[in-house]
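Practice set, problem 2.
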Amino acid sequence: MTVATAVFRITPDVNAEIARWLSYLGAERRMSAKTLDAYRRDVSQFLNFLTDHLGSAPSLKQLAKLTPADIRAFMAARRSEGSGNRSLMGTLAGCRSFARFLERNGKGKVGALAAVRAPKLPRTLPKPLAVSAAKQIADTDLREGEERE
């Protein structure tokens, strides 16, 4: 499926804006085809969820009327499908990018996306070096000919 392929289960006005947005990202922002495909997939998942959630394909006007509860319901549905925090963050980033594009082009503001916090990633400690790697770093014979202070 290419980036230009229409997203299913959405209204023609939203589909036209998605095509314009992806074209903008590809031409002016010079994003790669894989990035565009990921953004298209993220927004498609969101809009397909909204179709089920709202009972019909969302229009631009309906997108502007979304509440934070709608966004949280989407995140909960994605989490129940097994999506982790990193995946949810990426999906929200794609949807927020589309919402900013709509707002910049006078097609409405989807404020609910900005009102919901993205999930946080757990902080991890640095991994220790293996014993052999630590010995290599400390081995003065390996670095003998280097000039250093």
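Problem 2, part (b): a different protein.
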Amino acid sequence: RKRVFACHRISPGTAWGEALLSVDDICFYLVDPQTGIVLEKGHDAEGRSVSGKVLIFPSGKGSSVVQTDGLYHLQKNGQGPTAMIVRHPDTVLVAAAIIMGIPLVDDVDEEFYRLLGSGRRVTVEADGQTVTLEE
């Protein structure tokens, strides 16, 4: 069964993958660009890979240089997320997603977060302003 939720498009595109849910903000500079594994000590996603995942997290963190450079190296090495869903978009994250062509959305219904768990398949259709959760 699929559940479709409305969202707000920030960066265009369509992508899908396994959900990786983080309750902590993410600094992409603290993600290994060769493996996609979150290296930040104490981060709730520490030791898990963002590679090929729909990354769901509150917001980005860090300066524009470390955020953009970290995400750039992930993408360059084919280890970046397929799409991102954020609760609180910041200018740096938005600019990086647009430049690198990563679909990015926000403003997803709270029910999505209640039903979601890491490992579930999620499709982000930014242009159609929908997020689909496969149950």
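Answer key, part (b): Residues 21 and 113 are 9 Å apart (CA to CA). The first strand starts at residue 2 and ends at 6.
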